[in-house]
Amino acid sequence: MKFTNHNILTFFTSLAFLFAPIWVEAQSEVKTVDKIIAKVDNYIILESDLALAYKDRLSRGGQQSAEGRCEVLESLIVNKLMLAKAEIDSVTVLESQVDAQLENRMKMMVQQIGSEEKIEEYYGKSLDEFKVEIRDDVKEQMIIGEMQRTITQDLEVTPKQVQNFFDNIPKDSLPFYSTQVQVGQIVKKPTMSREAKENIKARLNGLRERILEGENFEDIARLYSQEPGAKQSGGNIGYFERGQLAPEYEATALRLKPGEISKPVETDFGFHIIELLDRRGNEFNTRHILILPKFTKRDMEKSVQFLDSIRNLIIKDSITFEKAAAEYSDDMNTSSSGGYFIESEAGGTKISVDELDPNIFFTIDTMEVGSITKPIIFRQQDRSEAVRIIYFKDKIRPHRADIRKDYQKIKQAALNKKKSEKLAKWFQDSKSEVFIILDDHYKDCQILN
């Protein structure tokens, strides 16, 4: 296979045929006279779809070229082919998974833009309207992802294949990596006093009584629930399978009869009252009212003192940072990796500074390699407060890809290459099984040849 700069970049970032993101930002900017330029069975690709996808490629550093436009169109056709084949092969995703993914995306948008009100003002529509508008796109993306996993799930690369992959890249085409760091954290969430817990439970029991006496659950949830999306959802979270929600929440919900409302239950997210709406097979549909825990200054001080003692043990070499994180950290996202933040693409613990949370970045910017901060109070993603210590283990200066320093990234790149080749072969083998039409204007792309 001939290596080009585009191929090298593709292998070092993602699969060649990754499904396109939802074009939220660009939709208000690209003005294209629409027409159908390709059809794959019952799925169509519009001129505007290509324009948006091509604009996204350019925004990520792609160069303007006819070849690049053809590559984008090919990836869109592959996506539609995957959807068509998914119908034939009965590959699908649960509606509850789509709902969960949609909620996660909405929460990310709220965090990035600042508030639900700002999102509604920016797009000129309510959050519920926005979710309805993009739901089908989210579901299609998830089905495409499931098809990709089905096609490539058995692929692996050996150390020898990784070395061969690296050796075959021209030295002047090796990617240049920005500064990378190895940073870990140990998090301790404060513990509420029994009295504070009982006060919250009493408050929830009061809301439960009001509902049992005839007030509308959704109205109460909109007024009092502290879940970020409750104002729009009325506390409804949709269908989920067993094992997808907090164990305490799920166990309580599954003990209820449809229409029954639980007494207060505590999870890692806070305190809930739960109504079971429906059960069908292995799925269940609920709504809830959430009250977040409130901690006193003394609660926070206890967490600070605990982490300070752990920090001293690490500094004295009485325990390693990694073991302390595994045993004592309350952050499930990092405790399983020895406390270290994980690089999103390759999965290694050496992460680009661009991927770091800004608060982490500014903290380590004043630290020496090998040092550990004193306990720091910070706000978690759910906006609750906790305490953490941060360990700045290593720093790697900007450099060309090096197999010793960047093995995990190069391994992932080699695997991506193997996957893209498998997907390309799948496309060639599968395109004859569905009905594909391409507009004459794009015949020169040679996509169907």
Describe the structure in your own words.
The chain is α+β, with helices and mostly antiparallel strands. It folds into 3 domains: 5-171 and 404-445, Triger factor/SurA peptide-binding fold (Orthogonal Bundle); 179-190 and 296-397, Chitinase A, domain 3 (Roll); 194-291, Chitinase A, domain 3. The chain is built from 16 helices and 13 strands. It has helices at 5-13, 47-59, 66-89, 95-113, 116-123, 127-152, 159-167, 194-212, 217-224, 230-233, 247-255, 297-315, 321-328, 332-335, 358-364, 407-430; strands at 36-40, 43-46, 176-177, 180-188, 236-241, 265-267, 270-280, 283-291, 351-352, 376-379, 385-396, 399-400, 436-438. The strands form 4 sheets. The protein has a 4-stranded antiparallel sheet. A 4-stranded antiparallel sheet has the order 5-8-7-6, with helices on both faces. Strands 2-1-13 form a 3-stranded antiparallel sheet. Helix 1 (5-13) packs across helix 16 (407-430), helix 4 (95-113) crosses helix 6 and helix 7 crosses helix 16 (407-430). The protein starts with a helix and ends in an 11-residue tail after the last strand. The relative contact order is 0.15. Mean pLDDT is 86; it is low at 1-32.
CATH level-1 class of the largest domain = Mainly Alpha
| Count of folded domains | 3
Q: What's the CATH H-level superfamily name of the largest domain?
A: Porin chaperone SurA, peptide-binding domain
Cα end-to-end separation: 18 Å
Major sheet: arrangement of strands = 9-4-11-10
Give the H and E element order: HEEHHHHHHEEHHHEHEEEHHHEHEEEHE
Largest sheet: 4 strands, antiparallel
Number of helices: 16
Helix-and-strand structural type: alpha+beta
Provide the gyration radius in Å.
Answer: 25 Å
Mean of all residue-level pLDDT scores? 86
Instruction: Please estimate the helix content.
Output: 40-55%
Q: Flag low-confidence runs.
A: 1-32
